[in-house]
# Entry
Amino acid sequence: MKQLAKKLIIARLNKKVKRLLAKNDVIIIGVTGSVGKTSTKHAIGEVLGATRKVRYSEDSYNTDIGIPLSLFGMKVPARLWDARAWQKIFKAIDEEIDNYKYDTVVLELADDELAMMKSVLKIVQLNIGVISGIAPVHMARMKDMKTVVHDNWQIAAHAKTIMYNADNQALRKKAYKTDTVGFGLKNGAVRFDKISRTKSGTLKAELHIGKNKKTIHTHMLGLQNLYSLLAAATVAD
# Structure
């Protein structure tokens, strides 16, 4: 019974998404990766928000129900099978579609649910796919690291443009001779150089985008945190 209810909810959500995208010109950015997805999503949302009307979820809604809801700024009801709660949600979604205020949406995608993501991305069509990073996590559902790389690339490949963490050797191999954009601390068209620490302990660095460069003062304390900023700079470029 619950499986049937879930299928009906997903089918109805997908219809709403199709209607939204048919009626509104929205750029959709999807962030996948086994590490750094949420921070990368937030960084992209904040950077693009300076010049665009951007929506992104504070929560990690990265399922076949959560992703469509994120497009509408809705949360999963406390009781998933609460019919009244869903009636209210669908009514609010219809109002959102008719008065959609955003031209860009940043979504978080589940890298350990390839089949689910393929189904979702047939409906939610990505303009840009970002791979935040690769590490040996979520391994309970993954055969090996080769599978982690493969699945993340497959998810990002649903987008018109792929942007990836070029400091990962396996991703660089995937990207070889492809029309993709890499970012990293050591590799990529978008990268940080001359990284140093200020008196307050935060990091500053020289941002290189192609032949252009600019000194950036961050609020970051750790080097790993810089990848989310690099991803955001790559998307914004």
